[in-house]
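Record type: monomer structure entry
Structure origin: computed from sequence
Chain ID: A
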Amino acid sequence: EIYLDGKLKANKDASGNVKQNSYPLEIGYQTNSKTKFFHGNIDNVAIWDKALSVDEITSLYNNGNTKSASIINSGNLKAYYKMNGTDSKLIDSSGNNNDGTITGASREER
């Protein structure tokens, strides 16, 4: 499921196991296309290893961030990118050290 500003925007049912691979996680463009880029702002990206309930998502949105202790401390948060900074380093604020690199995008302080 994909939520934007606390509202469900897209979902797709899936079954089976997620396979591990060596491909990088990419946010903001369609990997198999290399020409379909997201045009807009991306801020506060969080990745969990479980589906969050509607109540959990509502709580996160209403708190304005992922500082909901029960969700952060659940061990299910795998990466949290605040998108702060001006260089190409993308820091994982979850404590899991899943840092990354921003390529081909401009950054602005908010």
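Annotation 1: The longest helix spans residues 54-63.
Annotation 2: The radius of gyration is 15 Å.
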